[in-house]
Amino acid sequence: MKAFSLVLTSLAMAVSGMAQGAEIDAKHIERIGPVTQVSATALSKSAQADALRANLVAKLSQEHKASKVRIFNQALSWQTATSKAEGEGWLAYRLPVSTQRFTQGTLTVKGLENPQVYLNGQLVKSADKVELELANGDYQLMLLADGLQKEVSFSLDWQGKSDVDGLDFSAQKTQRVSAEQLFDSKVISNLTLSPNGKYLLQSTIEYQTAQGDKPIQVTELRKLPDNSVMYRWQDNRPSSAVWSDDAKQLAFVANKQIQLLNVADLTIDIAATELDNVSGLQWFGDSLLFSWEKPFKADDKATSKRFQALEDRWSYWRNNSQLYQLDVASGVIRQLTDSKITSSLLDSNADKGSLLLTRSSVDYKQPAHGITQLIELKVADLSETLIGEYRSFSGALYADKGMYITAGPRFMDGMGMQDPNIEVNDYDGQLYWRDAEGKVSALSKDFDPSIGSMTKLDNDDLLVTVTEGDRSPLYLFDKRKSRFSQIDTGVDMVDGFSVAAKQSTPTLVVAGTSATSPQKAYSMSLNSNRKQVLFDSQKQHYADTRLGKIEDFDFTNKHGHNIDGRVYLPADFDANKKYPALVYYYGGTSPVGRHFTGRWPFNLWAAQGYVVYVLQPNGATGYGQAFSGRHVNAWGKYSADDIIEGTKAFLNAHSYVDAKRVGNMGASYGGFMTMYLATQTDIFAASMSHAGISNLSSYWGHGWWGYGYSGVASRGSFPWNNPELYVEQSPLYHADKISTPLLLIHGNSDTNVPVGESHYMYTALKLLGKEVELVEFNDQDHHINTRQARFDWWNTTMAWFDMKLKDEPQWWNSLYPETADK
């Protein structure tokens, strides 16, 4: 058992002992106080003591690197804990704490009046003895207490639960990234630029521990180029915001109203009220178009539900949304569409007096077992013209003498296919042109990146978001030259953008991240690479954070295909050490993007001592149609080989990785891949499948979107005409081949991949006597999104790998202790 003790009299502090037997350098232990501000009562005696102390600690923690703070105009200095400590008031102590593994122990405080112990600014406990459990990471420990005039001995004693529970108190200039930083830090969630480029509507979201799962969301109207704030919303924030063409008015939905902000005097007019479930505003001349949804109300007495279609398992399918037009001047609203099927507005052209809308009817005749009607509506007489019915369709926009359309390669009988002899993946988005006579041509057939959204400029050029390898950049499509050119946005992954489409030289605002760079937002001209920084998360939230390096690692597989990959190194990497490694790969059919953070925090895993290898096996979009087409009717046939071959190449190329301590994980389709890999190889020492598919037939029939997704991933194949695919590629039917310890994680409210998919595998492996764990997350769907659940999920995953790859079971046992009656 290891211990350390900090001893303080009124004259000096003596430090004796710590875990691992190293002495604490007293210069790293700092104190403020006693602070003798005039107060009606001692800090801990107030009726509002908890709130008063929480605010004080928040202030001290916020400036945790500062040597001085100012409170009530009094300059206070953090000093080494060797000066006198006499007088009434309050005392604060701080010291850095670092651990390289999950660490448990007891902190004992002696000689302080009403001590409170805080970790990273959050109260752990108000007591003389405090139990601490610290995940691998860097922390700031702070104590707050009332001071005394008399000389007393003060001590802090740390008693580790076992010999491995040691802490390091050395001062550090920077800290490793934490889960709280990655989840809580403020980011821009939406950008809406005025057509003239002068004004920016910007929304942000952040979290604070005291607020729990409730986000702090703010929307601000800012003036460019100085980025000054003109107007601010926090309650009743605007949604569906859209600028008028002259940029004089901003229309939006708030408080069940359509409101108009007049930019000149910042006054707000109410254009229409009592409008619940309204969204999708678009200006149409001097009027506004919008969608108005009527939720389906079931019979309260009903005890059963007769399904009308496969879509009826979607909770929202019977809701009906139609299009309406608001005359802004009079406030009168008229209905434009009336259909039993929801009418969705895509685009409008006030000069032509027409709208583009879609309706999706029930039709299972061909994969992907749905059909979209593209309709043009004349606003003057509400006549409708059916442009076409498509099984591969994403969107459409008006342009001069025609329209742009985004759809899969099979659109218009395969017009977008690069090669009719290869299988294509209809999630690989393509761009098309339909002229005024109805003739359609493919614009992106020879463009490998997968097309996402599109935004039209005033000259009919397009800005398109794409998936290009593991990056999501912006491209400009020059209509006259029929050419794509990438825009230098300064980020790898574009989170959001907006463009001043009415300018002759459009202004562009972009927010995004890169693999090891937090979110930044820029303003720039499309004709120039010069950028003005509008927001920098690095400076605001990560200035004192150190990250590991990232390296590209590609290899050529046995078929001659280049397989893209990247490697994250630990923050304090030492090439002479041997590290455990984690391997991660795509889910669905999308590559693993170079996001800085998200549900899969590669930088956090690296900070906790793992080398992380991320690869993009065959089947991922963004690498060309032949590459993504290997996703179809494969279910692991190509991608598993790539992952196994890639992991071996990765191990051969990185001598600092311990080949016997490699784990793998994935989610959704990636969770399926994890289970499938466990039936194919024993190269991994431990595996984790989140929301994975174990039985292709049950997912196809029971998942809310299973039949539709399978219409692409298993195109033309069904349990009755291709049982080999549905059985042989289902991990469940090969569970007896699994020898790798497997953790199954699933939200028990998952409607995409029902939780039974993990239960099937859990049942099989339990009956086979294999090592398996199943952890369900209550009330969580396919994604674990709420704050505390996200932390619990991350902790569960890393505790599992710490146990299996580092031989450190303490964290897992703390999270999931064995019960006496097991």
UniProtKB/TrEMBL annotation:
Name of this protein = Peptidase S9
**Keyword hit for Hydrolase:** yes
UniProt KW Signal keyword:
yes
Q: Which domain of life is it from?
A: Bacteria
Q: Which Pfam families match?
A: Peptidase_S9
Pinpoint the Peptidase S9 prolyl oligopeptidase catalytic domain residues.
599-807
Provide this UniProt record's keywords sorted from A to Z.
Hydrolase, Signal
Q: Which species expresses this protein natively?
A: Shewanella ulleungensis
Which InterPro entries does the UniProt entry name for this protein? AB_hydrolase_fold (IPR029058), Peptidase_S9_cat (IPR001375)
PANTHER family noted in UniProt: DIPEPTIDYL PEPTIDASE FAMILY MEMBER 6, SERINE PEPTIDASE S9 FAMILY MEMBER
**N-terminal signal peptide:** 1-21
